[in-house]
Amino acid sequence: MNSIEDVLKISMENLRSLADANTIIGTPVSLCDGSTVIPVTRVIMGILTGGSDIPVKTAIQESAQCMAQYPFGGTTAAGVGLTPVSFIVVQNGEAKVMPVEYNNSVDRLIDVIMPLVNAVAGKIKCNCE
Fold it and tell me: Is residue 13 assigned to a domain?
């Protein structure tokens, strides 16, 4: 590893593996009553990367004309936060969003709109048959 790009590339590859689609939209869980529950999670990530070429003045480096190749020192710090947001409950062919808590009016609006979406989807299905 000899540059800040290498440090950042390795860090991003490791963080990407943490936040795949299965982390945000969880694995569906089937319940004994026939309903399915799908967890939805908010993922927040932060990354800090830094590095420096450390000048070393030795007689060997100057005589070998390697002044352009200083030793590299770098590090990365990362933080990941997972917060449960809601659950999608599918029961009797209808999907319902059940938020963990109502933080704002958008959460409430989604809860009100879902029955309308299910009703419209049912009408479209009936018309197609």
Answer: yes
- 82 vs 64 pLDDT, higher one: 82
Percentage above 90 pLDDT, the chain: 6
Residue 10 forms part of a structural domain: yes
**Structural domain includes residue 53:** yes
* Range(s) of the domain holding residue 69: 4-100
Side-by-side strand order, sheet with 36-53 = 29-30, 36-53, 72-91, 94-99
SS3 sequence of the chain: CCCHHHHHHHHHHHHHHHCCHHHHECCCEECCCCCEEEEEEEEEEEEEEEEEECCCCCHHHHHCCCCCCCCEEEEEEEEEEEEEEEEEEEECCEEEEEECCCCCHHHHHHHHHHHHHHHHHHHHHHHHC
User: Which amino acid appears at position 2 of this protein?
Assistant: N
- What is the number of structural domains in the chain? 1
Asked if residue 115 is part of any domain, the answer here is no
27-62 per-position pLDDT tens digit: 899 988 889 999 998 888 888 877 776 666 655 555
